[in-house]
Amino acid sequence: MLDLEKKNFWIVGLIVMVISFCMLLVGVKIVLGNELIVRNIVAFLVFSVVTGIIALLLVYFRLNLSLIFFIAGLTIGFFEMYRAFLSDMSGWGDLIGIMSLFMWSITGLGIGILIQFGRYLYTKFKK
Fold this sequence. Notes:
The protein is mainly α. 80% of the residues lie in helices and 0% in strands. The chain has one domain (6-125).
């Protein structure tokens, strides 16, 4: 399992935040080829801060399984976002890519919390 120290929880949140912001920026600016406006950058920052805070809280409360599934959901979401950006969907690739990123992120977090809760119940009633 992950051996993350509780005192370094902010580092994980910061790393997740920076990586997600950079991947969004690269995806929209370079892969999609759109011009960046202030509203886009603010939206990227908000999403990145939210993902960083979620990762930070998962480490702080030692929910390692949830963190693993959340990071996996983010990874799959970014992969699907890039895939949608690269495939020609007659103008819908950008919207579908961002929506798939959001859906995979939420799905990863939800599955992680359910599995973490199942593990908690298993260890509680095992005795």
